[in-house]
Design a protein that fits this description.
By secondary structure, this protein is α/β, with parallel strands linked by helices. Helix content is 34%, strand content 22%.
Length: 151
Amino acid sequence: MSNYNRIKLELEKITNYSIPEGTTIVIGYHFKDDLCSNGIKNKWYRVKINNVKRNLKPYINQLKDKNAIYISLFENGMILKTKPNLKYEYFFVDNNNFFRKSLFIKKSFCGSSAAIKPNGETLIVNSEGSILNIIINLENENWNRFFITSN
């Protein structure tokens, strides 16, 4: 279990936009010095970012249908050539490493993803393809395999 309100607040500080109440938060996390990255590991320029965003677009649309938002975070120390003040930007640096220290404690190759529900239930998936696994596991029948609900 995570503190959803604290996570939401920290993301709002980083992104400078408000996350609607009751929204599931999905975070893709990129680790510094990840051997999975091609080329220069710790520098993400516009061309690379745009290619990744193009590949993420169908997943982000699926998340919207599930009342979820997606934010891609990069460990502090990485260089990210984005336009953070744009309204629809969703690639940001985890400047104070809050998420590295609280959610993504164990570094994994090819990054990690997390889904945080408003009730604090949190699922973390490691490695390549983690966003697709998050989407699949957001389905109630799959989610309920991880989290027992008491009625």
